[in-house]
Amino acid sequence: MWRLSCVPVVLALLLAGCSPRKVPAVVEDLLAEARKELAPDRRTAVFAVVPTRQGDAILLTGEVHDGRMKERLLATLKAKSDFRYIDSITVLPHPALGEKTFALVSVSVANIRAKGGHKAEMVTQARLGTPLRILKKESGWYFVQMPDDYLGWTKDVAHLMTGAELAEWAARPKLMVTARLGYTRQSSAPASTVVGDIVAGSLLELRKTLPDGYEVGYPDGRTAFLEKSAGMPFDAWLARAKDSPENIVATARTFFGVPYLWGGTSAKGFDCSGFTSTVYWLNGTLLPRDAGQQWDVGEAVDTSNGFANIRPGDLVFFGDGETSGGRASIDHVGISLGGGTFIHAPSSGGLGIRTNSLIPGEPEYSASLREAFLGARRMIGNGVHRLASTPYYNGHAY
């Protein structure tokens, strides 16, 4: 490690047009490049590294969510500049959390917010039984990462676990809730006390199969009864779950009328991409959370000569057409029913999940959506993650 006296360093910085106390532009540029390469989407990656001058060195503070990211960053900085770096970057999960750096959602839907506060924007939701990676805790709020890598803050009920405890839970038999909405109860008696509400896609421990239903367990230890028509053993469900065009469309249609909810991912309320990702999840496929992220996966469908190539189950995308860094500006997504007809969760109109058409003259034609149409992507069989090969959902460690 090289060392220089203070005077030559100051002189060198002044000749380079830098203040002795100011971080050199080359360092700022290298950090910006690293952020773009290592964490291009701040919705799914943490890269909050702050440089400051400390004598003849650059002090690096802040946090990243992955140790390999930190190693690559430091290697890049040292390879591309001659400054001495002092590493004070925290790798999440934060050490103050101890061993319990995982959790399982223990309510029907947990609200995930952009910041730690009830007034903060709700960016997504996590359904009952979803595993969360806990990254840090501030003022009673947990900063978490979901299986689709989405980040956010929650204070809703989640049962904290160690990695070993989560792996043990993952190996237990599970029950998949298939009913759109419902309740678990203390017993099979119709008038028995409600234990909790459930939504399609909830996961519970399957403790016993009974003649008229299931004895299920919550992540926090509660025991309940669920009627047989509301769910099925997860392994059996997963074996038959298939993101075929017919299944995707049939599942989407079950949610007609569900109201729009910004950040919503359940039958209590959907936003546009929460609807598409949930429909695919209920057919065994893990899509990215947001519309713009969904645009980036799958295969482009040729719509240059109209909508004839769009198949049922394809995703159709809308936006203002402007680009940032060569990317389309996408603000809406729906599920094609074939051709120019699609089902979606519009934010206006107040009618909830409904169908529209891009073809003039059809009863459900929308001129505004036709003008905003950007293209279609085929998710089925094209580079998206199947739950059967996703840790935790296939019984392995998360």
Q: What does this molecule look like?
A:
The chain is an alpha+beta fold and 398 residues long. It has 4 domains: 6-91, 2-Layer Sandwich (Histidine-containing Protein, Chain: A); 95-169, SH3 type barrels; 172-240, Roll (SH3 type barrels), CATH 2.30.30.40; 245-386, endopeptidase fold (from Nostoc punctiforme), CATH 3.90.1720.10. Helix content is 21%, strand content 35%. A 6-stranded antiparallel sheet has the order 22-27-23-24-25-26. Strands 10-9-8-5-11 form a 5-stranded antiparallel sheet. A hairpin with an 8-residue loop joins strand 6 and strand 7 (122-127). The protein is globular. The two termini are 40 Å apart. The model is unreliable at 1-18 (pLDDT under 50).
The biggest sheet, with number of strands, parallel, antiparallel or mixed sense and barrel status, is: 6 strands, antiparallel
In terms of structural class, how would the helical and strand content be classed? Answer: alpha+beta
Percent of residues in helices: 10-25%
Strand order of the largest sheet: 22-27-23-24-25-26
**Poorly predicted ranges:** 1-18
- CATH H-level name of the largest domain... which superfamily? endopeptidase domain like (from Nostoc punctiforme)
Oligomer: single chain
Please tally the β strands and state the result. 28
Q: What's the Cα radius of gyration? A: 25 Å
Shape: globular
Based on the structure given, which CATH architecture of the largest domain is correct?
Answer: Alpha-Beta Complex
Strand content: 35-45%
